[in-house]
Request: fold
Amino acid sequence: GAQLVAAGKKVFKKCAACHAVGAGAKNKSGPQLNGLIGRTMGTVDGFKYSNVFKAAAQEGRVWDEESLAEFLAKPRSYLKGTKMSFSGLKKEADIVSLTAYLKANSE
Ligand code: HEM
Reply:
């Protein structure tokens, strides 16, 4: 619901130094995250991904709620070799709300 999305927007502050989402979002040091749920991994135009993301794109792997939750809990374990330097979200509730927020930006 709307409350979950609002909570996720707050959690997104941890991501906002590197990622933009919403109308007019541009790539920063990380790719823009519009339409993330349902998007093939590593496919934002003009972004230079690491090799592990290029491989995921070639394999056609798609972001869904499950893969995103695993990635956000431990980015560098889920995609070994990623250049995303973020240790991960410790709280399950943060992952749930953040996913709802990103999903709201995927419609
Ligand atoms: C990649 C989410 C925090 C830098 C990604 C991707 C997602 C994501 C979903 C893959 C996008 C795609 O496949 O196109 C998040 C979320 C964050 C977060 C939700 C906060 C909880 C950060 C931070 C940084 C960062 C703090 C910078 C210090 C990057 C970079 C990539 C990336 C550089 C590309 C990785 C690669 O090519 O290996 N992020 N991120 N992210 N993120 Fe983040």
User: Anything to note?
Assistant: Residues 92-104 form the longest helix (13 residues). The chain is about 40% helix and 0% strand. The two ends are 14 Å apart (CA to CA). Helices lie at 2-11, 51-58, 65-73, 75-78, 92-104.
